[in-house]
Amino acid sequence: MSGCTAPVRGHRSAAAAAECPACRYRSSRYSGYGSSYSSSGASGTSSSSGGGGGRSGSSSRPRWSRAGSSISYTPAQVQSLTPVRETIETRAAQQPDLRDVFLCHAWDDRQGAAKLLHDSLVAAGVKVWFSEKDLGLGVPMMRAIDKGLANSRIGLVLVTPALLDRLPKEGVADKELSALLARNQLVPIVYNTTYDALRNVSPLLASRSGLDTAEDSMEVVAAKIGELVALL
Question: What number does CATH give the domain 6-229?
Answer without folding.
Answer: 3.40.50.10140
